[in-house]
Amino acid sequence: MFPIVKPQDKDGEMVPMVTPFQCDQCHFVNLFGCLPLPGLASDVRVLKCIRRANLDTFWSCEPATIKRVLSEAKHGLAIASSLGFAHSLFRPMGPFPMQDNMGMGIAIVLLQRSLDKGKHNKTIQLETLRKFRAAASNIFHASVEGQGAMTMAKDTKKLMVTTCPMYGDYFKRFMRGVHKRMGDIIKPDRALSIPIMLELLQLMDCNWNRA
To answer: 86 Cβ partners below 8 Å, 6+ apart?
Structure first.
């Protein structure tokens, strides 16, 4: 399903977001089986996380790609209309089943995990955050549902086809958006000054002579 929200690109033109989408309350119902209670702190927090996850997913969409998809879709729709089958050209955008098949629960935990204190910075970095995604994926494939994955093998090469939500289109876009928002902070090894290097060489010479 495409969201109604249409952000402006750099030229000021309104463009649609080409990504799987469900509203905040739909995701909440998928997770809890009921609507959120107004004013309940825990429900409000979950709704905020869902909104953040959706925004991160939208952030992964490149405006140029979206505009190109829209242009091609309009062109194709015009051709289909002239031939009389515009109504069946594209598949329905919904409704989605009432279950968390996009991995929103995992996304919420990742967003909360991203607020944990880091070793060198205020919060943890993306590479640390990815570890929970990997853990959730391993747990899914160890479950009953995960046993339905198919494996295609040829000689020593294998390719697995899985229904794991963490490898779905929505979650892939979500992780890309999180990466864009958080960025990467790399701390390379600093170069040693000449006095420190000479001191290290002297210590190594002493160890060598003792040996």
So the answer is: 77, 80
